[in-house]
Amino acid sequence: MSKTPAWLDRLGAGLSRLGARLEERRAAAAAGDNGNGAGDGDPGTVPPDHVPPPPAYAPEVPARPHPAEAIPWGMRVAAEAGWRLLILAGTLWVLMRVISAVQLVVLAFVAALLVTALLQPTVARLRRVGLPRGLATALTAILGFVVIGLVGWFVVWQVLDNLDNVADRVKDGIEELKRWLLNSPFHVTERQINDIAKNLQDTIGTNTQEITSAGLEGVSVMVEILTGMLLALFSTLFLLYDGKRIWQWSLKLVPSAARPGVAGAGPRAWRTLTAYVRGTVVVALIDAIFIGLGIYFLDVPLAVPLAVFIFLFSFIPLVGAVVSGALAVVVALVTQGVFTALMVLLVVLAVQQIEGHVLQPFILGRAVRVHPLAVVLAVATGGLTAGIGGAVVAVPLVAVTNTVVTYLRAYGRGQVSRIGPAPHGATVVDLAPTPAPPAPKSESSPPEGEERS
């Protein structure tokens, strides 16, 4: 046999050593996996799901961020606020639809709340004298409704008694106004005045059907008004008689976690509403008396009905003063002439300026102070939503909401004692007697003997 070449021997020996090294590495890797709990099989085998670590020279690959972290912070905040605002807007829309469906009932109940806020102190005084609750409620309601009925009867009597005189004065005033226009620097001719009068007569004759239908609609509106007045009457009687239990029953509808805050906010809201109603009545009465006296001394007819009209329209902020003052000026213009109308305008403006800058801040005070922009927006929204009734209740609703939100925000921060003294007075004690919960103590609370700011 021929001898094997030396290079084949060396190649075989090298392959044998390489195979031995591979077996050693495979055994070491299997032993390491079994020691870390990654594999349970034969130490000589590598698990199929084993992923070897990357070599040291491989570049680092950053992990992908969470999807929420990839969105900018401002966009995340806007999205969070956006869906919450959409839910609030949907809730308000549904609420407004429900209120529109039962608008008459809602306005009647709100009117009952306003009247109750005005009459409740009288009931409380009668009960302190010793009268039972039912008798005190009956006497207060009868007295209030008798006063309202007498005022209405007196107004109707004055209108009917002065109707003929007013008609004659209107004719004379129109003739005087016509002469003033002819002699004025506006270069108005008699033919133009006659054309205007003829066009007005033609318009009234052409639209007779529309006027008739408007009259029929007015009849239906009067029926709705009478229905609302009856609802407000019954609601007022029950609120005066049983307001305490109605308030306590309403508290049971609130979740127990929020009940202490609502129990403290309720009396403060009622105090704000009472202050608003009583202050508004006083201001409206002063407006009616002084403007009515000015109209009376200027010899304008229907002074008393105009004064009552001014009193009623004073409950509509901003708009009521303009409408009632304009009506007084128009009546003075067509009955007494231009000079008297200008004097009535000066009286109306003077009284309203005193009211806006002196009477309202002094009488209403801080309890119902609302920013003028909020008043304008509230009156406009209430008028568009529910007409005159909505405009009347808009401002007290905003004032009460402001009081409730302020209290709840302070209560949530544990600072109830810093927003003012506890509610006091007969109205609050009788209608909303639930006391406010004690303020939680904190390190910054003053000692017991010191006065809190």
From TrEMBL:
<keyword id="KW-0472">Membrane</keyword>
<feature type="transmembrane region" description="Helical">
    <location>
        <begin position="330"/>
        <end position="354"/>
    </location>
</feature>
<feature type="region of interest" description="Disordered">
    <location>
        <begin position="26"/>
        <end position="63"/>
    </location>
</feature>
<feature type="compositionally biased region" description="Pro residues">
    <location>
        <begin position="45"/>
        <end position="63"/>
    </location>
</feature>
<dbReference type="Pfam" id="PF01594">
    <property type="entry name" value="AI-2E_transport"/>
</dbReference>
<feature type="transmembrane region" description="Helical">
    <location>
        <begin position="374"/>
        <end position="400"/>
    </location>
</feature>
<keyword id="KW-0812">Transmembrane</keyword>
<feature type="transmembrane region" description="Helical">
    <location>
        <begin position="221"/>
        <end position="241"/>
    </location>
</feature>
<dbReference type="GO" id="GO:0005886">
    <property type="term" value="C:plasma membrane"/>
</dbReference>
<keyword id="KW-0813">Transport</keyword>
<dbReference type="InterPro" id="IPR002549">
    <property type="entry name" value="AI-2E-like"/>
</dbReference>
<feature type="transmembrane region" description="Helical">
    <location>
        <begin position="275"/>
        <end position="297"/>
    </location>
</feature>
<feature type="transmembrane region" description="Helical">
    <location>
        <begin position="135"/>
        <end position="156"/>
    </location>
</feature>
<feature type="transmembrane region" description="Helical">
    <location>
        <begin position="303"/>
        <end position="323"/>
    </location>
</feature>
<keyword id="KW-1133">Transmembrane helix</keyword>
<keyword id="KW-1003">Cell membrane</keyword>
<comment type="similarity">
    <text>Belongs to the autoinducer-2 exporter (AI-2E) (TC 2.A.86) family.</text>
</comment>
<dbReference type="GO" id="GO:0055085">
    <property type="term" value="P:transmembrane transport"/>
</dbReference>
<protein>
    <submittedName>
        <fullName>Predicted PurR-regulated permease PerM</fullName>
    </submittedName>
</protein>
<feature type="region of interest" description="Disordered">
    <location>
        <begin position="427"/>
        <end position="453"/>
    </location>
</feature>
